[in-house]
From TrEMBL:
Keyword tags: Oxidoreductase
Similarity field: Belongs to the non-flavoprotein flavin reductase family.
Keyword Oxidoreductase: yes
Protein name listed in UniProt: Flavin reductase
Domain of life of the organism encoding this protein: Bacteria
Flavin reductase like domain mapped to chain residues: 10-152
Gene Ontology molecular function: any one: riboflavin reductase (NADPH) activity
């Protein structure tokens, strides 16, 4: 398989941009910008997130059995880039973003347009990103979208012509 062609073809899959957050069993907060995300079941409501296996967010979600998925909206490129590196808590903010703890303890980012809190149902440990399957236990809608809900989500293509992940 040609590596360049593989990369181009796999980058044709459209991705939204989200911030996964979790509170570790040690009380440390973790967060990461993620884009390998989809809903996989209506009943029970399940979402899956591809999370880099060696990330702090993966460790915190695995240990605590809980996480939140914060949906970023159009124009929130700054928040997406803020969570490309390990999260820092300073002055009551998580990587510069105001937040509050969700019912499951995971940070809910105030500026995100919406969020779901999840209980880890299973982790499929294959490849460099493990698939975390989460059962949705709570939802938060901070800003009602105008028009189609899926059109409100920040997308990978909104981060610039030279920003890619995948392939």
């Amino acid at each position: 398989m040609d590596a360049a062609t593989k990369k181009t073809v796999l980058r044709m899959i459209p991705y939204g941009i989200y911030v996964m957050t979790a509170k570790g069993t040690d009380g440390q907060l973790a967060a990461a910008t993620v884009n390998f995300v989809t809903q996989t079941s209506f009943s029970p409501p399940l979402v899956v997130v591809g999370v880099k296996e060696d990330s702090g967010c993966h460790l915190a979600a695995r240990e605590s059995g809980q996480f939140a998925l914060n949906m970023l909206g159009k124009g929130q490129q700054g928040a997406a880039f803020a969570f490309f590196k390990p999260a820092e808590v300073e002055d009551g903010k998580l990587s510069g973003e105001p937040f509050r703890p969700g019912e499951n303890g995971a940070p809910i980012i105030d500026s995100a347009i919406a969020a779901v809190e999840c209980k880890v149902a299973e982790i499929v440990a294959l490849g460099d990103h493990h698939v975390v399957i989460g059962e949705v236990t709570q939802v938060h809608l901070h800003k009602h979208p105008e028009g189609r809900p899926d059109a409100a989500i920040l997308e990978m293509k909104d981060l610039g012509d030279n920003v890619f992940y995948g392939g």
